[in-house]
Amino acid sequence: MIQCILGEREIGKSIFVENQVKTIDKNALYIATLPEWDMYRDVIQRHRQRRPSTWDCIELMNMLPCQIITYPFLNYRNVVLDNLSYYVLYQVCANDNVFFRELYSDFLILFDQVAISKNTMVYLIDTPLIQWKFLDKDEKKMIYQIFFSILHKAKKIEKYYQGNIVCQITVEEAIDYFFTHEEVSVL
């Protein structure tokens, strides 16, 4: 199953979800997506310090695409996937779409498997795709299709506001929030 929590950067989405998961699972999986660049070092360090030591953690930037696709995600009851959009944008921009050329359909199949799983809950924490306006039309279409597919498979989509205020939103509202009106109309 997939639950999406969307909101602006650095307002406490990750802390909110991590605290929820801590109360129900001592052995969750945390999937980190940020590259180890200077601009992200503080954020990465804060996240590492507050995660329980009993949680497993994988860093997508340090994995080959085939390792990601074959990782046993479904062996966990709870998986926290923090900012998949950063990883996807990085793969499109920095790696000349190698990830998507090689494993695009496998990536969507993986999310299909997670979505129908009764034993695994994936908490997808993400922010609006502001950076995607710099991509060409084909890249935008690919990214849009990925997140459109994930959002439509989600059991629940919530928008998180600072101060632990959460409201449930529809798929259409999530797509609108995630991509913005102007960008979606381009597709």
Automatic annotation (TrEMBL):
A single GO molecular function term of this UniProt record: adenosylcobinamide kinase activity
GO biological process terms, semicolon-separated: cobalamin biosynthetic process
Q: Name one Pfam family in it.
A: CobU
- Which InterPro entries does UniProt cross-reference here? CobU/CobP, P-loop_NTPase
Q: Please report the name of this protein according to its UniProt entry.
A: Uncharacterized protein
